[in-house]
Specification:
Layout: E1 10-16, E2 18-19, E3 31-32, H1 39-56, E4 61-68, H2 76-89, E5 92-102, H3 110-115, E6 120-126, H4 130-135, H5 142-155, E7 158-165, H6 172-183, E8 189-194, H7 202-208, H8 217-233, E9 238-240, E10 243-245, H9 253-259, E11 263-267, E12 272-277, E13 280-286, H10 290-300, E14 304-309, H11 312-323, E15 330-331, H12 332-336, H13 344-352, E16 356-359, E17 362-365, H14 367-370, H15 373-380
Parallel strand pairs: 1-4, 1-11, 2-3, 4-5, 5-6, 6-7, 7-8
Antiparallel strand pairs: 8-10, 9-10, 12-13, 13-14, 15-17, 16-17
Helix pairs in contact: 1-2, 1-10, 6-8
The structure holds iron/sulfur cluster.
Length: about 375
């Protein structure tokens, strides 16, 4: 068993599963917010955090990430309560990164969210074009998004924007114009995702009915390459397949913990976690349904539905697929520590095909390789 996972950071992920409206492309574990009282879920989150502390023992927290769902539906007091719980149980490292995903519609809460201790806001803008926003089922306009960004910049030292591209009927030029506008905004970080048709999402049904057709593979590849070029030229190089930062300090430290196979606790309905405990690497999942989750924490003291010790093979596969996502690449030493060395022949073949580079002790995907990341990680895995 490798002993480096805890050294790669320790994060806490909080899943807030409610959204004002469920977007047609979304397949996350989300539920319409309606008029739900937040207290039962807050009680469950704190109870599950206590149970997680029993598993981890004392460690200081490097990062906290409020994801969802729409955690910007939480008030400043809700966030304060969860953060106090984390402080009491583990303690936060000085300068810990605390991120919250926000819907632009919730700009009125940004001040209280910042005052509660969140320092990094990840703003789900999704598009800066009104027609695209309507297609994506979003309730805000491009103007609303820019106003929310303005408010965010005055309350958070660090702001990131999420945008979705590869929308039907949109050309590379259309996307470049939108991306150029995003790159002119005062943010340090961009997450740029290709629209994917997820099995359980409403878009899967509308595509099946023939209502619209997603871009083909060639156009998607052109869009990805154009994205990389534009971002690189504007000083926002990719540090991961879909993530771009202006400076090293703008990189998401929380997500880095995932990609580097660090340790994190995940609480809230349907959250996932990974913990190194003694000789074991544990994969943890919680009850997906919010009511079932709350009931379980109340009756059993924890929200876990899965607690599995990962085999060495699973650990290697996870490390290859996650590590290759980062543009700095995957450290061979990390694989060697798990008793695995990828086939030299495979590496050389992939290098010759232009998919892979070798830099000192790392292998990393080239731009072309990033387009086939999943297939390449399968080829390099045992
Ligand atoms: S995309 Fe975001 S806002 Fe829309 S339903 Fe999914 S989690 Fe909620």
């Amino acid at each position: 068993m490798a002993d480096f996972e805890p050294a790669r950071g320790f994060g806490v992920y909080i899943h807030w599963p409610y959204c004002t409206r469920v977007c047609p492309y979304c397949d996350f574990n989300v539920y319409a917010a309606k008029l739900r009282r937040p207290d039962p879920l807050l009680d469950a989150l704190c109870g599950d955090l206590r149970a997680s502390r029993d598993m981890t023992g004392p460690r200081l927290v490097d990062t906290v990430f409020f994801g969802g769902g729409t955690p910007s539906l939480m008030s400043g007091e809700h966030i304060t309560r969860v953060l106090e719980c984390i402080r009491d149980l583990w303690g936060l490292k000085a300068g810990a990164e605390i991120t919250l995903e926000a819907n632009p519609d919730d700009f009125g809460r940004f001040q209280s969210v910042g005052e509660a201790g969140v320092g990094r806001l990840s703003l789900g803008v999704q598009s800066l074009n009104d027609e695209n926003l309507a297609f994506l089922g979003r309730t805000h306009s491009a103007k609303d998004a820019l106003r929310a960004l303005d408010v965010a910049c005055s309350h958070f030292p660090s702001v990131s924007l999420d945008l979705i591209y590869a929308l039907p009927g949109r050309t590379v030029r259309d996307w470049e114009a939108e991306l150029s506008l995003a790159l002119s905004l005062p943010v340090g970080h961009l997450s740029l995702y290709e629209l994917t048709i997820e099995k359980g999402a409403a878009f899967a049904r509308s595509v099946k009915r023939g209502d619209w057709t997603p871009p083909d593979e060639d156009l998607a590849a052109d869009l990805y390459e154009a994205t990389q070029r534009r971002c690189e030229d504007a000083g926002y190089p990719a540090y991961e397949i879909s993530n771009h930062a202006r400076k090293p300090s703008d990189v998401s430290r929380h997500n880095r913990i995932y990609w580097e196979s660090g340790d994190w606790v995940g609480v809230g309905p349907g959250a996932h976690g990974r913990l190194t405990v003694g000789d074991e690497r544990l994969a943890i999942e919680t009850e997906e349904n919010p009511v079932a989750y709350q009931k379980q924490v109340a009756s059993r003291g924890h929200g876990r539905s899965v607690l599995q010790s990962l085999s060495r093979l699973d650990q290697i596969r996870e490390r290859v697929s996650m590590g290759l996502r980062m543009t700095e690449g995957l450290r061979m030493d990390d694989l060697n520590a798990l008793g695995f060395q990828p086939s030299e022949r495979e590496i050389t073949d992939l290098q010759e095909l232009g998919f892979l580079d070798r830099v000192t002790d790392r292998i990393r995907l080239t731009l072309t390789g990033r387009l086939a990341a999943d297939r390449i990680s399968l080829l390099l895995s045992p």
